[in-house]
Structures are given as C-alpha cells and as structure tokens.
Amino acid sequence: MESNLKTNINEEILNIEKIRNDFPILKQLIHNKPLCYLDNAASTQKPQIVIDTINNFYSTTNSNIHRGVHYLSEKSTQAFENARIKVKDFINAKSEKEIIFTSGTTASINLVAQSFGRKYLNEDDEIIVTTMEHHSNIVPWQLLCDEKNANLKVVKINDIGELLLDSLNDLISEKTKLISVMHVSNTLGTINPIKEIIKIAHQNNVPVLLDAAQSIQHIEIDVQELDCDFLAFSGHKIYGPTGIGILYGKENLLDEMPPFMGGGDMISKVTFEETTFNELPFKFEAGTSNIAGAIGLGAAIDYVKSIGIENIKEYETNLLNAATDAVKEIPGIKIIGNAKEKTSVLSFVIDNIHPHDIGTFLDFEGVAIRTGHHCTQPLMDFFKIPATSRASFAFYNTLEEVEQLTIALKKTIEVFN
Amino acid sequence: MDAELRELYQQVILDHNKSPRNFRVIEQPSNSSEGYNPLCGDKINLYLTIEDEIVKDISFQGSGCAISKASASLMSSIIKGKTIEETKKIFEKFQEMITGRLDENSDLESLGKLTVLEGVKEFPARVKCAGLAWHTLINAINKKKEPVTTE
Predict the structure, then answer these.
(1) How many angstroms separate the CA atoms of A390 and A359, rounded?
(2) Which of A8-17, A325-334, B53-62 is the least confident region?
(3) What average pLDDT does the segment A227-255 reach?
(4) What is the domain count for chain A?
(5) Beta-carbon pairs below 8 A across chains A and B
(6) pLDDT at B151
(7) A357–B123: do the CB atoms touch at under 8 Å?
(8) CA dist A296 to A19, A87, A248, A303, Å?
(9) Strand-pair partners of A409
C-alpha cells in the first residue's frame, strides 16, 4: 500500500514509462531477469537521442573541425562549437571561452594540476583535498607535490561521512595554493557544503576546483553563483558518451595559465624559433578533439534539460529514501554514508559477506551494482573496511527496482547464513 | 539458485568461507608472504614451515570474498605435507583449471577438492580472487620480499 502511494507520487514528478522507453538498453533481460541497472554513479545509460545524434554525425556530417573550408568541415565545426555553447549555458558560465573539452573529469583535473599547479606551486606550498576524494582528485596532486616538494593537506570527515569544515579553517594558510574538492562523494553520496568551502577559500585568496563528476547529473550548477574557479565533469555520467569531459575555468585564470599539451589546434603561429598560442579555449585543446563525443554530450544536456534537473533531484531523492528505508530493515546490513544531504547513492556492507560475493549474487538477480573501494581507498581506510557494495540510482530507476534490489539482498544473505 | 551461480558457489566453498581451515598465524614461519588484490582490496598473509623441501605446516590470515577465502583454505589443506615440487605442479594445474586452459583429458586427481573451484573459469572477474592465495604461496616459497599483487 505504502509502495503504491510512493509510486503515485513519483509518477506525478516524471513520466517514468516514457522515460524508460527512451533508454533502449534498459529493455533487456540479464540472467533471465529484467535488468535493474543501479550502477549509475560509475556510468549512466544513454537515451536514444544521444545514440542517434552520434550516429547521425558520423553518417552525415563527420569531418575534422576548425580551419577546414569545405562544407562538412564547416558543419562539424558548427555542431562542435554549438555543443560548447550548450555546456556553457547549462552551467551558466560567462563565456564559451571558459569551456574546455577534455576526455573526462580525470583529464580536467590533471590539466589544472599540470598547468595551474606547475606555474603557481612552489616548494613548501600546499594543496588541500578531503578524505573522501576519488583517486583522480588525489594522485594528480601527489604527482605535482612530489615534483615541487610541496604538500598535500587533507580535510577530515566525521563518522556519517560529512566534511569537518573546522578542519578546513585550521588547514588553510598563506601556503595554500588551491583547494580541490568533490561536490558529491561517489562512494557516500554526501553533498559537500561547497558554498561555505568557496567562501572560506576566497576569504584567504585561494581558488577552488570543484570535482562535479557526481553532482552535474543530480544538482543544478551555476558556476557564477557558486563562484568556483574551476569545475570538472565527465560526459558519460550525465547520459552522454564516454571519452568526453569538461573543464570550466574562470577566464582570467585560464588566460594566465600555460598550455598543458602542445600540438595542432592550440597554436596561433609556429616557427622553429618561437610559437604563439591560440586564444581560449583552443589553447587547451591540442590535437583533434572527441568531436562526436562533444556533440553527443550536447544532446545529453538537452535531454536532461527537457526532463528538468529539479524534477530529477526530487524523483531520485524519493528513490534514495525508499531504498534507504528498505535496506535498513534487513538485519546485518550497515549503511556507509549517512550525511544529511545526499544524492541517490547507497553504499552498504553486510556482516560476513564480502561485497564481491554480493555483487555476483545480485547480478544473477538482474541487479547491477558496483562493489569494491570505488577508487576511494583513503575513505575505505577511514571507515576501516576493504570495500562496500554501492547501489546508485538514476531518474530511469523505479520503486519496483528498489524492491528487486531488496529481495535480491535478502536471498543473498540467506545463502551465506 | 541459478545453475551457473551454484557451480561457482558450491557448498564446499560456502563451508570453507564460513569456517576456513588453517586460519591462524604461525609464530616463527620459515617462509611468509603477503598478497593483495587492489581491485577488491582482498588481503592475505601466508605462513609456511618448510623443512627438507616439504611443507610441514601452512596457515593464513586476511580478508576477502568467499572465493578467495575458500581457495586459500582449500589450498592450505591440500598443500600440507606436499613437497615443494609437488606444490608447484599442483599450482600450475590449478592455474590451468581456473583460466579454462585444461585440456579435456587432463587428470584432475591431483587437484582433489580444489576442483570445486573450476566454476571460476566462467567468471573472468573472479579468477584473480581464486588465484591470490596461490600466487602468494609461490612468492613465499621463492622468498620474494615484495608483496605480491594480482595486478
């Protein structure tokens, strides 16, 4: 009865039947069970419009961009630059010069580390990250700090998986050159208080890089309102293709930064004596970009906008609450990550059953979840666990799937006890 | 339960997972090694007492999935009392079995109970789980100091 009530509430927010029809991959059976795809924090599925847009590009428009004088090259360039404008509008950047296409969040963070970091970081300087960061927001800074004899400082968290802002206040000093922090934790779902973090940082004249890989698909982001200095995200986590991502940076910062990679497209004039670099954003886009990927990302953004990020958030929160309530009822399960503000990520451990065994058993019930350390080993060390099982929900998931997950978990526990 | 899944998680494996054999520390081992699977965070510490080329005692500690724990437990039961040469031969055959490279006419007798792990060959992601204890064993026998990883 209660489940029916929730279903009705959620159906008022989104036309779930129509939405599920937009995603061809969801229609299949896995091990003879309906696919219940709950690995959305790792990668999201693609709506037909994204698949068709990429297919159409290669079928009708494909050509290299910029500098071409022929028809197809002009068409490709137009479509590519149009995708950049879509991204700019989506995150409300001031100018498309601030939107750099990369291969993904990892590449975006490495770009800042290698360009901004190499220029501004000196011996004994400090970069601040947090305990909950993904390895991709730890290792690039470690590499940089090793090279510069600089230090990485870590903002601590509490037992429910929330950042301790006091610890940031203690760490920040005149040595701090950058704070790089995830907006949302991929392992815990915690939504970090980034407005406060940015405020504290800017009071100390420290720029902030926001890793939005796990927030861009769940929360409305306005870079001007947030006033973040850099922002990174991946196309494939917001229903677009893999191999395309974004680095947003404030124009004045990007202007002062040296190029990261050298090559074609990023130059203005090359002689063997001297090279002058192209203007933004092309200065940071050496080589042929993932053109089809960028155009696919543009289509994904259009799709997400057509559903509405506020509706998505409301719907997914209902899914998370239903899943949290259901999983809490199962004896032997402990939820890892109980922050007050969360996106639709549910990490948990079960007494005496290793997450990998849970993952395999759930797979045979058609339920796809991720198990392991989720590229957050320092966070696993904090919780003193080797791994978790993680179910992460998207707006195409349903309350019936929450039930499918719950039943599969109960069956698994039965086998192992 | 699905037949393929039942093949992977046979009752023997579930039993060894629940009550692993030789799950203890040997205080003064002649050989020891640490194994680690960075993919899933599985860890194993392996202890051996080798005398006159014979494994007199073997034990392990650590954490891991049912497959890796059962594999370590079964391994310790089979290897105890075997010579180093016999151990290496069993290891090779076991490796062939879990990676699906055994030819059909192969004699599985030397593997004994280890054959319950044959189902792993259908699960490429889990082959490393079954192999971790064995790679750690070979490392301990060869007395390499670096911890072994499956990556």
Answers:
(1) 9
(2) A8-17
(3) 98
(4) 2
(5) 52
(6) 59
(7) no
(8) 18, 11, 18, 11
(9) none
- Cβ-nearest to A354 among B2, B66, B123: B66
Kindly indicate whether the ipTM for this predicted assembly is greater than 0.85, answering yes or no: yes
Instruction: Give the three-state DSSP class for B22.
Output: coil
Reported as a pLDDT band with limits 50, 70 and 90, residue B143 is: confident
Q: Are residues A29 and A171 in the same domain?
A: no
Active-site annotation holds for A375: yes
Residue A50, token pair as written in the block:
């994204």
Rounded to whole angstroms, the Cα distance separating A116 from A245 reads 18
Do A77 and A175 sit in the same domain of this protein?
yes
What chain B holds in terms of domains, given with CATH numbers, is 3-142 (3.90.1010.10)
Which residues lie closer than 8 Å to A205 by C-beta, 6 or more apart?
none
Q: What is the pLDDT of residues A244-303, one digit of tens each?
A: 999 999 999 999 999 999 888 888 889 888 888 899 999 999 999 999 999 999 999 999
B129 closest CB neighbour out of A356, A361, A416: A356
* Residue numbers in B near A412 (CB within 8 A): none
Is the confidence at residue A2, as pLDDT, over 90? no
Q: Which residues of A touch B42 (CB under 8 A)?
A: 386
Residue A19 to chain B, least CA–CA distance (Å): 31
Note whether A264 and A335 are same-domain residues: no
Residue A82 and residue A217 in one domain: yes
Residue of A nearest to B16 (CA): A416
Do A106 and A213 belong together in one domain?
Answer: yes
Strands (E), A206-296: 208-211, 230-234, 245-249, 267-270, 275-277
Could you tell me which of A100, A411, A412 has the C-alpha nearest to residue A266? A100
Strand B148-149 with A126-130, pairing: unpaired
Indicate whether A1 pLDDT > 50.
no
Residues of A in contact with B124 (CB under 8 A): none
A-chain residues near B3 (CB < 8 A): none
Which range marks the domain in which residue A182 is found? 51-306
